[in-house]
Amino acid sequence: MSNVTTNRATSAALTVLRGVNKDLGIVQQQVSSGFRVETASDDPTYWSMATTMRSDQSSLSTITDALGLGSSKVDTASTAMDSVVSLLTQIQAKLVSAQEPGTNKDAVNADIQQLKSQLQSVTQSASFSGENWLYNTNQQATTQQSVISNFTRGASGQISLVSINYDSSQTLMIDTADPSRGLLTKNVDASTFDTSSSGSTTARNYYLLAADSGTTPTGGTEIAISSSTTDAELTDMLNVTNSLLTSATSADSTLGLMKSRIDDQSSYISKLSDAIKSSVGDLVDTNMEEASVRQNALQTAQQMGVQSLSIANSMANKVLILLQAK
């Protein structure tokens, strides 16, 4: 039954149309923004989870940068250590050649001094971002280096940083403040390599380089030869140089291991960041295929609602015409 003042059919059509318009507005907003859950009011639980995960992803991006910086530092130190190992190998070869009868030891020594100058240059230039793991001038040497590699989030939400640590005392080649801390500037007791049974307790300490400041270890003799250098002294120098070469090779190998760990961690962080990004998308992103189908359906329902309202209004108009005719 139609009523002039209260048209129930029109009211019902309006109610349906309002609901359709509201749903259509929500779907259109989701399509235009790309987010199914854009604000906390859309879904507090999913929004909170997504916000926390986005924060984690941002932290991972910072860690990626830190790993890149750390990798550059290790690369610089490793490249310099490769050169140190190569130069020590050449010095050792020169000392071996000096033991040959008739060799011009003064000429060999000139070559050795050139190689030692290169060692000075290599260690001094091994600096990146203000850090040099091979060369120290400070009274207090840094013996521990670290690179931030990850973070963990505890059950209560607290964050703890994880680092890759390295004992940089292994790569300290020259120390101008305290020569005994530098591999190339410290005294090495050659008698520890003597396998003879002479029982001599005479100290035979040798060091390879004098620090730039001219500071030398107490009671040591620099590895340098001349025509008066004896075969026994050459043997001592050769043994000490071989010991330095072994230590330098070990330090270089450790740097290579650290570089490998950083590369592995960088790859893991990249994959973890991608996984978090995908998970956030699953929580809050709009499913465009589904939203497109729903949008088309709601637009159709909207058109039908408008037509229903038009029909309801036309029925009331016809009743009014009949009343006016009377």
Keywords, please?
326 residues, f41 fragment of flagellin, N-terminal domain, three-stranded mixed sheet, two-stranded antiparallel ribbon, 9 strands, rod-shaped, disordered N terminus
Descriptive notes:
- This protein has 326 residues and is mainly alpha-helical.
- It folds into two domains: 1-34 and 286-320; 35-285, f41 fragment of flagellin, N-terminal domain.
- It contains five helices and nine strands.
- The chain has helices spanning 8-33, 44-98, 105-125, 231-284, 288-325; strands at residues 127-128, 131-132, 135-136, 144-153, 159-167, 174-175, 188-189, 205-207, 221-222.
- Strands 7-8-9 form a three-stranded mixed beta sheet, covered by helices on one side. A two-stranded antiparallel ribbon has the order 1-2. A two-stranded parallel sheet has the order 3-6.
- A hairpin with a 2-residue loop joins strand 1 (127-128) and strand 2.
- Helix 2 (44-98) packs antiparallel against helix 3.
- Residues 1-5 and 197-201 have low confidence and may be disordered.
